[in-house]
Amino acid sequence: MRKDDLHRLPETLVAPVDDGACDHLPGSAVPDVALPATGGGLISLAEVSRSGRVVVYAYPRTGVPDEEPLGGTDLWNAIPGARGCTPQSCAFRDHHRELQELGAAVFGLSTQTTGYQREMVARLHLPFEVLSDADGALAGAWRLPTFTVDSTVLLKRVTLILDHGTVAKVFYPVFPPDRNAADVLVWLAAH
Protein backbone atom coordinates (compact mmCIF):
# COMPACT_ATOMS: atom_id res chain seq x y z
CA MET A 1 0.00 0.00 0.00
CA ARG A 2 1.28 3.47 -0.88
CA LYS A 3 1.86 5.97 1.87
CA ASP A 4 1.39 8.98 -0.42
CA ASP A 5 -1.21 10.38 -2.83
CA LEU A 6 -0.39 9.88 -6.51
CA HIS A 7 -2.44 12.94 -7.46
CA ARG A 8 -0.72 15.44 -5.16
CA LEU A 9 2.80 16.79 -5.26
CA PRO A 10 4.60 17.04 -1.92
CA GLU A 11 5.56 20.60 -1.01
CA THR A 12 9.13 19.48 -0.33
CA LEU A 13 9.97 18.37 -3.88
CA VAL A 14 13.34 19.51 -5.13
CA ALA A 15 13.30 21.15 -8.57
CA PRO A 16 15.53 19.54 -11.20
CA VAL A 17 18.33 21.64 -12.69
CA ASP A 18 19.07 22.11 -16.36
CA ASP A 19 21.99 19.75 -16.91
CA GLY A 20 22.21 20.51 -20.63
CA ALA A 21 20.98 17.04 -21.56
CA CYS A 22 18.42 18.47 -24.01
CA ASP A 23 20.54 21.22 -25.57
CA HIS A 24 20.87 19.22 -28.80
CA LEU A 25 17.10 18.84 -29.33
CA PRO A 26 15.84 22.25 -30.61
CA GLY A 27 15.64 22.12 -34.40
CA SER A 28 16.57 18.44 -34.54
CA ALA A 29 14.75 15.99 -36.79
CA VAL A 30 12.37 13.62 -35.05
CA PRO A 31 13.75 10.06 -35.33
CA ASP A 32 11.52 7.73 -37.32
CA VAL A 33 11.05 5.08 -34.64
CA ALA A 34 7.71 3.27 -34.45
CA LEU A 35 6.55 2.74 -30.87
CA PRO A 36 3.75 0.60 -29.41
CA ALA A 37 0.73 2.76 -28.54
CA THR A 38 -1.93 2.21 -25.89
CA GLY A 39 -4.64 2.25 -28.58
CA GLY A 40 -2.98 -0.64 -30.41
CA GLY A 41 -0.55 -0.62 -33.29
CA LEU A 42 2.61 1.39 -33.75
CA ILE A 43 3.05 5.17 -33.97
CA SER A 44 6.05 7.09 -35.28
CA LEU A 45 6.28 10.62 -33.88
CA ALA A 46 8.30 11.58 -36.97
CA GLU A 47 5.43 10.52 -39.20
CA VAL A 48 2.58 12.12 -37.23
CA SER A 49 4.51 15.38 -36.76
CA ARG A 50 5.13 15.83 -40.50
CA SER A 51 1.59 17.08 -41.01
CA GLY A 52 1.32 19.41 -38.02
CA ARG A 53 2.08 20.10 -34.40
CA VAL A 54 2.54 17.36 -31.86
CA VAL A 55 3.09 17.70 -28.12
CA VAL A 56 4.94 14.77 -26.59
CA TYR A 57 5.55 14.74 -22.87
CA ALA A 58 8.13 12.22 -21.74
CA TYR A 59 7.94 11.21 -18.10
CA PRO A 60 9.70 8.70 -15.85
CA ARG A 61 6.94 6.41 -14.62
CA THR A 62 3.34 6.70 -13.52
CA GLY A 63 2.55 5.08 -10.21
CA VAL A 64 0.00 2.45 -9.31
CA PRO A 65 -2.36 3.34 -6.43
CA ASP A 66 -1.59 0.30 -4.26
CA GLU A 67 2.16 -0.02 -4.95
CA GLU A 68 5.15 1.87 -3.65
CA PRO A 69 7.21 3.61 -6.35
CA LEU A 70 10.58 2.24 -7.46
CA GLY A 71 13.03 2.54 -4.60
CA GLY A 72 10.23 3.51 -2.21
CA THR A 73 8.43 6.82 -1.66
CA ASP A 74 11.27 8.56 0.16
CA LEU A 75 13.83 7.80 -2.55
CA TRP A 76 11.42 8.59 -5.40
CA ASN A 77 10.52 11.95 -3.86
CA ALA A 78 14.22 12.77 -3.35
CA ILE A 79 15.12 12.33 -7.05
CA PRO A 80 14.77 15.80 -8.63
CA GLY A 81 12.13 15.61 -11.36
CA ALA A 82 11.00 12.03 -10.71
CA ARG A 83 7.77 12.70 -8.85
CA GLY A 84 4.68 14.05 -10.60
CA CYS A 85 3.89 11.78 -13.56
CA THR A 86 0.25 11.28 -12.60
CA PRO A 87 -0.43 15.02 -11.99
CA GLN A 88 1.31 15.87 -15.27
CA SER A 89 -0.74 13.29 -17.21
CA CYS A 90 -3.95 14.55 -15.59
CA ALA A 91 -3.08 18.14 -16.52
CA PHE A 92 -2.62 17.14 -20.17
CA ARG A 93 -5.94 15.29 -19.94
CA ASP A 94 -7.66 18.36 -18.48
CA HIS A 95 -6.19 20.69 -21.15
CA HIS A 96 -6.52 18.24 -24.04
CA ARG A 97 -9.40 20.01 -25.75
CA GLU A 98 -7.62 23.37 -25.61
CA LEU A 99 -4.46 21.80 -27.03
CA GLN A 100 -6.49 20.29 -29.88
CA GLU A 101 -8.10 23.67 -30.56
CA LEU A 102 -4.59 25.07 -31.01
CA GLY A 103 -3.93 22.34 -33.59
CA ALA A 104 -1.75 20.06 -31.47
CA ALA A 105 -1.99 16.31 -31.09
CA VAL A 106 -0.81 15.01 -27.69
CA PHE A 107 1.15 11.88 -26.81
CA GLY A 108 2.62 10.65 -23.54
CA LEU A 109 5.91 8.75 -23.63
CA SER A 110 7.62 6.54 -21.06
CA THR A 111 9.75 3.41 -20.82
CA GLN A 112 6.90 1.49 -19.19
CA THR A 113 5.34 -1.37 -21.10
CA THR A 114 2.19 -0.82 -23.14
CA GLY A 115 0.22 -3.07 -20.77
CA TYR A 116 1.26 -0.95 -17.79
CA GLN A 117 0.41 2.21 -19.72
CA ARG A 118 -3.01 0.90 -20.79
CA GLU A 119 -4.01 0.43 -17.15
CA MET A 120 -2.98 4.02 -16.41
CA VAL A 121 -4.77 5.43 -19.48
CA ALA A 122 -7.99 3.69 -18.44
CA ARG A 123 -7.68 4.63 -14.75
CA LEU A 124 -6.93 8.31 -15.47
CA HIS A 125 -9.32 8.53 -18.46
CA LEU A 126 -6.66 9.93 -20.78
CA PRO A 127 -8.10 10.98 -24.17
CA PHE A 128 -4.79 10.52 -26.01
CA GLU A 129 -2.35 7.72 -26.71
CA VAL A 130 0.69 6.93 -24.60
CA LEU A 131 3.73 5.44 -26.34
CA SER A 132 6.08 2.82 -24.92
CA ASP A 133 9.83 3.15 -25.42
CA ALA A 134 10.48 0.10 -23.24
CA ASP A 135 13.45 -0.99 -25.35
CA GLY A 136 14.94 2.53 -25.43
CA ALA A 137 15.01 2.77 -29.23
CA LEU A 138 13.63 6.32 -29.41
CA ALA A 139 15.55 7.52 -26.34
CA GLY A 140 18.76 6.19 -27.87
CA ALA A 141 18.16 7.59 -31.35
CA TRP A 142 17.15 11.02 -30.00
CA ARG A 143 19.61 10.97 -27.06
CA LEU A 144 16.83 11.72 -24.58
CA PRO A 145 18.02 12.09 -20.98
CA THR A 146 17.50 9.10 -18.70
CA PHE A 147 18.19 7.98 -15.15
CA THR A 148 18.19 4.58 -13.47
CA VAL A 149 16.40 3.38 -10.32
CA ASP A 150 16.56 -0.27 -9.18
CA SER A 151 18.13 -1.26 -12.54
CA THR A 152 15.20 0.30 -14.42
CA VAL A 153 16.05 2.94 -17.03
CA LEU A 154 13.59 5.81 -16.97
CA LEU A 155 13.17 8.95 -19.06
CA LYS A 156 13.81 12.29 -17.44
CA ARG A 157 10.81 14.57 -17.72
CA VAL A 158 10.93 16.62 -20.95
CA THR A 159 8.14 18.01 -23.12
CA LEU A 160 8.70 18.58 -26.82
CA ILE A 161 6.63 20.44 -29.36
CA LEU A 162 7.17 18.92 -32.77
CA ASP A 163 6.30 20.74 -35.97
CA HIS A 164 6.67 19.27 -39.45
CA GLY A 165 9.15 16.62 -38.39
CA THR A 166 11.44 18.79 -36.25
CA VAL A 167 11.61 19.93 -32.64
CA ALA A 168 10.15 23.45 -32.39
CA LYS A 169 10.27 23.84 -28.59
CA VAL A 170 11.80 22.00 -25.63
CA PHE A 171 10.53 22.29 -22.05
CA TYR A 172 13.38 21.01 -19.86
CA PRO A 173 13.61 20.67 -17.00
CA VAL A 174 9.87 20.48 -16.38
CA PHE A 175 8.88 21.75 -12.94
CA PRO A 176 6.40 21.62 -11.43
CA PRO A 177 5.04 18.85 -13.62
CA ASP A 178 1.38 19.64 -12.95
CA ARG A 179 1.85 23.08 -14.57
CA ASN A 180 3.52 21.78 -17.73
CA ALA A 181 0.34 21.49 -19.84
CA ALA A 182 -0.61 25.10 -19.04
CA ASP A 183 2.92 26.25 -20.01
CA VAL A 184 2.59 24.38 -23.31
CA LEU A 185 -0.75 26.06 -23.98
CA VAL A 186 0.78 29.50 -23.42
CA TRP A 187 3.62 28.73 -25.85
CA LEU A 188 1.30 27.29 -28.52
CA ALA A 189 -1.03 30.30 -28.30
CA ALA A 190 1.92 32.66 -28.81
CA HIS A 191 3.44 30.71 -31.71
List keywords for this structure.
191 residues; alpha/beta; 5-stranded mixed sheet; 7 helices; 9 strands
Subunit arrangement of the protein: single chain
The tally of helices reads: 7
- Biggest sheet strand order reads 5-4-3-8-9
Which stretches of 5+ consecutive residues score pLDDT under 50?
Answer: none
CATH architecture: 3-Layer(aba) Sandwich
Instruction: Provide the β-strand percentage band.
Output: 15-25%
Task: Using the coordinates shown, work out and report the CATH topology.
Answer: Glutaredoxin
Any overview of this molecule?
The structure is a single chain. The chain has 191 residues and is of the alpha/beta class. It has a single domain, classed as Glutaredoxin (3-Layer(aba) Sandwich). It contains 7 helices and 9 strands, in the order E-E-H-E-H-H-H-E-H-E-H-E-E-E-E-H. It has helices at 45-49, 73-78, 85-94, 96-101, 114-124, 137-142, 180-190; strands at residues 34-36, 42-44, 53-58, 104-110, 129-132, 146-149, 152-155, 158-163, 166-171. The longest helix has 11 residues, at 114-124. It starts with 33 loop residues before the first strand and ends with a helix.
Summarize the structure.
The chain is 29% helix and 23% strand. It has 191 residues and is α/β, with parallel strands linked by helices. Strand 4 (104-110), helix 5 (114-124) and strand 5 (129-132) form a beta-alpha-beta unit.
Topology of this protein?
Elements: E1 34-36, E2 42-44, H1 45-49, E3 53-58, H2 73-78, H3 85-94, H4 96-101, E4 104-110, H5 114-124, E5 129-132, H6 137-142, E6 146-149, E7 152-155, E8 158-163, E9 166-171, H7 180-190
Parallel strand pairs: 3-4, 4-5
Antiparallel strand pairs: 1-2, 3-8, 6-7, 8-9
